[in-house]
Amino acid sequence: MIDLKNLTIEKAHQNLKKGVFTCQELVEEYLKVIKEKNKELNAYLEIYDDILEQVEKAQKEFTDGTAELLTGIPFALKDNILFEGHKVSAGSKILENYTASYNAFVVKELKKISAIIIGRTNMDEFAMGSSTETSAYGVSRNPYDTSRVPGGSSGGSAVAVAADMALVALGTETCGSVREPAAFCGLVGLKPTYGALSRNGVIAMGNSLDQVSPFGKNVRDVEIVFDLLSKHDSLDSTSVPNNLRKPKSEKTNQKIIGVPWHLFEKGVDPIIMDNFKQSIEKLKNSGYKIMNIELPFSKYSLEAYYIIMPAEVSTNLARFDGIRYGFSKEAKNLKEVYMQSRGKGFGKEARRRILLGTYVLSHGYYDAYYNKALKVRARIKAEIEKVFEEVNLIATPTVPVLPFKLGEKLDDPVAMYLCDIF
Amino acid sequence: MDIKDVENLAELARIELSMDEKKAILKDMEGILAYVKTIERVKVEDITAKHELHNVWREDKIEPHEFSPEFLTGQFPAAQDGFLKVKKIL
Questions:
Q1: In chain B, which end has fewer C-beta atoms inside a 10 angstrom radius, N or C?
Q2: How far apart are CA A397 and CA A218, in angstroms?
Q3: In this structure, what CATH number is given to the domain that contains residue B37?
Q4: Domain A247-422: what homologous superfamily?
Q5: B-chain residues within 8 Å CB-CB of A362?
Q6: Structural domains of chain B, count
Q7: pTM here?
Q8: Is the pLDDT of residue A249 over 60?
């Protein structure tokens, strides 16, 4: 019996190295939990059938003495990251029969050091949602209270780690899709700086925003995964070149945390606000200096986001047309094939955002919405760059609300979108 | 926005919707647009970006990538003799 609850990557690695347990024994412990809990929690959509081969390869590296820190570590993979020869559906019916034809960059990196990918996890359709309720494959449930959502869109990956069905997991985040489920499930979620991790082989939602983002039970586990995957990839033109990855030299040793208090005046649950204030006190007591900062344009970040992201969604999802791959509906002519395949293949939220994106990009609205949102985004970027001249970090609560009940926000898109505000 | 606008957008986006779906989307769109509309009130002058964005190119040289054509054609909804089969366009 392995104590999965308190297991970390470093502990697992030490035990695998010393032979306290084997890769197979470790994976079997997780599979046991999956067998017991997945039916109710619906974290995984599929457990891969080649785990045994993956395990044997990892174990051999321990025998040969070539094992690295993440060798043999069981990962869960969000259903929008390509793993060659395995199904990948982005939580959508339109891709239910699709098999990945190549490996995503991050999967290549994980396979290089023989990490074990247990299976693919449930998600909001095409990562559009904050609760994992828009998946075509059923809702996932919060392991701490199964009447509540685990957050989203990477809810399946969060549940997998929180319920000990994997040691760590990869999700993807555009705005909140990893940090929010991490907060709802008591985990650490890291959205890396855009360009840190390659987007190659990740099914795109908003190209100017998407990032592969790790989940773990503690900061160190997430750091280890991030360190492995954060490198330049020539196949992603927005991947940050290696010479720009060196951390900026610290001007002072003093750590100053900026807190934009004015952004939390409205709409944050008082329980969350209290908790946030307590955390700030703890940081103060640990020697950090807290500074009130003003970010006047950041107030409009969510509005800008819900214009830019659907615009990118509507162009990205144009490729799912029932012609080259995925779900296809037989119809009398080409246009009908498009109309019906897309009409039946996409769920409610995907359709909503495609139409919204089409609207903000259409003639007559382009300047008022899309162009304006880009300008606001440029201002937000500029004001954040400026504030970082004075502070080293910026702190905000992760989510303005506590985990809500299944179905509670499903018919109120704006209420759901507000979960992404930070 | 009215039901006609929803129909036009659905036509542009090539998504078939039933009347009930159109009505539901109209209601949702009105709510979402009312929310994002606040951006119209924000006053922004053009600013010059501190870091200019630039295109990233790769050398135009052929590098082998392992793709199996059979694997890709096998995923076509309709195929004939190794080609993707589509409905008549004209």
A1: C
A2: 18
A3: 1.10.20
A4: Amidase signature (AS) domain (3.90.1300.10)
A5: 9, 12
A6: 1
A7: 0.96
A8: no
